[in-house]
Amino acid sequence: MASSAFPICTGPCSENLRATTTWLRERRLMSELRMVDFAPVRATGEAAFIRIEPHKDRLEIWYQDRYLFDEDTNTQGFLRMELDYCEYLETLRLTKGAFGWQLLFVDVSLRDREFAWHVENLTAMLETFPAAFPQYDYTPLRHRLQART
Asked: pTM for the whole thing?
């Protein structure tokens, strides 16, 4: 019987075990995801997925972006969004589908240069939309962008 005092494997073996565990966890997650939003014309590697789980009323939304891919762990860059499906649709309407708006609702820093275009695009959206669509309050989105940059 294995105990924590006597690990099953250490060194490179433990690294492989950790990577395999991460890979298996992500494969399970991917089997539960169904794509609901993407930009095929732009081919950016950005997509949103709904997670289908038995006996769950609140459907999770997950976001994937090619810049979230992690070479060290070979993970595909899936992050759970801070929105459920209904909130996702409401926010989609608010942002008019501006590229990268989903990054405002995941736990990620936008300070890396890979996200510079997203930050530029989101900044332009938040400068333009309040005047173009005065019926909406864009202050919460502005705060989310500031917190990530």
From this structure: 0.77
